[in-house]
Amino acid sequence: MGRYFGTDGVRGLANVELSPLLALKLGTTAAHALIERKQGKKILVGRDPRISGDILESALVAGICSQGVDAVLIGVIPTPGVAFLTASSDTSAGVVISASHNPVRDNGIKFFGEDGYKLDDAVEASIEDQIDNFDNFPRPQGGEVGNIFRRHEMVWKYAKHVKSTTNVPLDGLKLVIDGANGAASELAPAIFHELGAKTMCLNCTPNGTNINDGNGSQHPQQMSVLVKQVGADVGMSFDGDADRVILSDENGNIVDGDRVMAIYALHCARNGGLPINTVVGTVMSNIGLEIALKKEKLKLVRTAVGDRYVSDEMRRSGAIVGGEKSGHIILSRHTTTGDGMITALQILTIMIQTGKRLSELAGEMTDFPQLLVNVKVAERDGWDEKPEIMAAIADAEQKLGDRGRVVVRPSGTEKLIRVMAEGQDQSEVECLVHGICDVVKKVMG
Questions:
Q1: Mapping DSSP to helix (H, G, I), strand (E, B) and coil, where does residue 140 land?
Q2: Is residue 268 domain-shared with residue 385, that is, in the same domain?
Q3: Is residue 160 part of a domain?
């Protein structure tokens, strides 16, 4: 991670850490970098509905246009929509203003290259190297400055793409859709309704400040309870920018990203369509996923946490399914990045094709007891240089032996240290995790 770019773009406290001035610098420098690389002169810009998006968009676009590059403003749209539209239009890059699953106080700026994948590391490095010199770049004059085009209708081109990823109607399915008051609040109910499903909406009325407010993929319990109450077949909770989804089966049981990957991969393998017999997960994926895949002679390759690392490994190896337990799933036959709506739609398609309920499909994977605790810290850097923390981790690993795993890592977007352990005994796992957390709090809290 660089000075500004983390694993998922630039993110921070809106109007403070991620200020309009920083957005101006990023827009200016990114446009300048594209011009230097002769990669065209048009950038697509989308955002989620959080209130700070307006000021950051204005500043970012001012910077882009100051370099003679045009800005195409789509408005509120899921992050994967920007990735798709960037790759399928004549734009040279895409930008999303969103802090994904983070609360309203945060925001972020994330770039995609012209191929719809996250911006190349070399271009991000170039932006970081030049950003403090942004005010010295050449300035076009008169009619040479960039234009701003407002094209919200492009959202429906993306919606058409989502619907095209299935060839079966959803007639008869009853769905609960939790939009997290985010970017999918309008699109998701419309798309699933148009495909034939009966939909009940939850948290689909964004007002700029209620995004990810105790709802969505981070808090799917409200959705899962409603599924059981109304007798729905499936519930789906998206996050603020709809690149994640957490599902619920008809009994109100949560179906997370690991189970979704298991369902999709096992179905593809049984129908002769899983290249290299591999799923790409992360170090946080439950060992139960590994076991479920092994039964069908499939393997799980683990990467560091972050969809960028999952995507890189998928592209390197040729795997077509990868993702995270958090619900960020990449299905490369349909998308270049995580897409909550496409993921949910593929699982519904498998249900219809197999005639099985979601509970039966999800039951092919058994979770090992796992606990993840987030510890708030003053700064997330340097945790792995603290002898007390490393000693606590080593002690926990020794106690677990080959019966489980311990994973400690900093958040890529927040001032948190994430402590996870996994094993055969729930009480032992809890004891070990809380022991490490106590040390982290003492040393870095």
A1: coil
A2: no
A3: no
My answer on whether 232 and 177 are in the same domain is yes
Which of 9, 166, 1, 23 is closest to 82 using CA atoms? 9
CB of 343 closer than 8 Å to CB of 322:
no
174-183, pLDDT tens digit by residue? 999 999 999 9
Burial 243-265 (b: 16+ CB within 10 A, else e): bbbbbbbbebbbbbbbbbbbbbb
Band of pLDDT at residue 253, cut at 50, 70 and 90: very high
Domain count, the chain: 3
Strand partners, 374: 418
Among 362, 381, 408, where does a domain finish?
362
Concatenated DSSP letters for 363-431? TTS-PPPEEEEEEE-S--TTGGG-HHHHHHHHHHHHHHGGG-EEEEEE-SSSSEEEEEEE-S-HHHHHH
List the structure tokens of 1: 């991670």
100 catalytic per annotation: yes
5 domain residue, yes or no: no
Residue 4 lies in a domain: no
Domain that holds residue 397: 370-444
| Long-range pairs of 435-442 with CB within 8 A, sequence gap ≥ 24 | 435/392, 435/395, 435/396, 436/389, 436/392, 436/393, 436/396, 436/406, 436/408, 437/373, 437/375, 439/388, 439/389, 439/392, 440/375, 440/377, 440/383, 440/389, 440/392, 440/408, 441/375, 442/388
Catalytic residue among 52, 92, 100, 217: 100
Residue 84's DSSP bridge partners are: none
Q: Are residues 335 and 384 in the same domain?
A: no
Residues in Cβ contact with 99 at an 8 Å cutoff, skipping those fewer than 6 apart: 11, 14, 48, 50, 106, 107, 108, 240, 413
CA atoms within 13 A on the CB side of 193: 11
- Angle formed at CA 161 by CA 11 and CA 303, multiple of 5 degrees: 45
What is residue 2's predicted lDDT score, i.e. its pLDDT? 63
Same domain for 337 and 229? yes
- pLDDT digits over 207-222, tens only? 999 999 999 999 999 9
Q: Do 140 and 112 belong to one domain?
A: yes
Please state whether the predicted TM-score (pTM) of the whole model is above 0.85. yes
Place of tokens 């609040």: 185
> pLDDT digits over 112-129, tens only?
999 999 888 888 888 999
Helix pair 187-194, 340-354: axis angle to 10 deg: 20
120, part of any domain:
yes
Q: Which CATH number covers residue 179? A: 3.40.120.10
